[in-house]
Amino acid sequence: MVDAAQPVTDDFDPLAPETFESPHQLYRELRARCPVAYTSAYGGFWALLRHADVDAAARDPELFISSVRAVVPSDPRGIRRPPLNFDAPAHTPFRTALERTLGRERLAAMAPRLRAHAIAQLEPLLRSGEGDIAKQFGTTYPAFVAAEWLNLKESEVWQLAETASIWVDAWRRQDAETVTDKSNAMYAMARALVADRRANPRPITEDPASSLLAATDHEGRPLDEELIVGALRQSLVVGLVAPPILLGAIAVHLARDPGLHDRLRDDPALVPPALEELLRLYAPYRGFSRTVSRPVVLHGRRIVPGVPVTLVYASANRDESVFSDPDAFVLDRPNIGRHLAFGAGPHRCLGMNLARLSLRIALEELVRRVRRIEVVGEIEPTRMPELGPQRVPVRLLLA
Ligand code: HEM
Fold it and tell me: Long-range contacts made by residues 102-111, C-beta under 8 angstroms, separation at least 24?
């Protein structure tokens, strides 16, 4: 819904064809001349491009709320699942219940198993020497990571990897029928998890379903079972969308910068800071959205409730007023901690530490086993709301 105050002309076109390099040129221009930009695409939304505005909006959940639209384009059925699509106080117990399952000790215990999964999931690509690293390793390894977090059975991992992959592809094509079909399949998995953990509860710091079932809301009541199912449905898929894109982007980067590939293999201590800089450069979620709770004027533009506002994390991460030489890979930037690939504020990525750990292990194993990566075909970019490559055909020369 666009009220009379909405602009009649578009400041940019998010549907314009993209390449691996774009849309950073566009974002740079918008940051300079139109930092709060409007487009009528996807029903109309605003985009915040500058780091300062994106960061401030993410940290102001009373003005920029998540419960109306948390993503553009969003689920046409209007389904809202916690924690992503909820505001406090309803958001808090879901967030707390999931967060306590990702403590330092649990992550440390998971690390060797994640490494074993990384090695096993890389193996088919190494054996054939060629393939699509975003689709193959990039899709299966994160499914094993999610399975470790949620304590899924081995047989369920393959089902999850396949269902989520078809769901994501259908989402990008806006194929509503397949989206609904696969979403229902993931709902069924979430329901089965709830039923199983109700019968066989596990320690709350080690199992998301058990933790949600044991949690209470701000009035001390147990959480609504349908919302627990929704939170688990979100948890099943949330770690499977960004990692394939990021792993694909990392492969392209290493193919273009073999010197970095060698340095990372020779000195694995460089992998964590390199990963952080790669996250800054290739933030796989271009942005998440909010809606204002009251009319507000930002850089002279009047934003009203009902029109989504996308916080463009990918643009903020290359804002030249924060990161000098923003398109360059610079190891150990002094202010790398300010990148927004995981967002900021109360909705900042809940799986951030698991994502970092699993990606670090993936990158370590990749540079250890592979001497050189060559891109051997067309890189296929993904679509809104993600950013980056969804298909990266590579040849791998073994170490
Ligand atoms: C490269 C990997 C990942 C990236 C770049 C990423 C990025 C993000 C971002 C930007 C948000 C903020 C949403 C907002 O501003 O509204 C977010 C939220 C979230 N992420 Fe991640 N994520 C990654 C992996 C994961 C993984 C592995 C998990 C699960 C273990 C996860 C779980 C979540 C959840 C549950 C939320 C919603 C948090 C809330 O609304 O309170 N993410 N993620």
Answer: 102/149, 102/350, 102/351, 102/353, 102/354, 103/205, 105/205, 106/205, 106/206, 107/353, 107/354, 107/357, 110/148, 110/149, 110/354, 110/357, 111/357, 111/361
Question: What CATH number did the domain enclosing 135 receive?
Answer: 1.10.630.10
| Greatest alpha-carbon span in the chain | 62
How many domains does the structure of the chain reveal? 1
Ligand 1 neighbours, Cβ below 6 Å, are 58, 66, 70, 83-84, 95, 149, 238-239, 242-243, 246, 284-285, 288, 313, 341-343, 347-351, 354-355
207 Cβ neighbours under 8 A, 6+ residues apart = 101, 150, 151, 197, 201
- Domain assignment of residue 250, given as a range: 24-398
Q: Is residue 189 part of a domain?
A: yes
Q: pLDDT tens across 13-71, in order?
A: 999 999 999 899 999 999 999 999 999 999 999 999 999 999 999 999 999 999 999 99
CA of 241 to the centre of ligand 1 (A): 10
- pTM greater than 0.90: yes
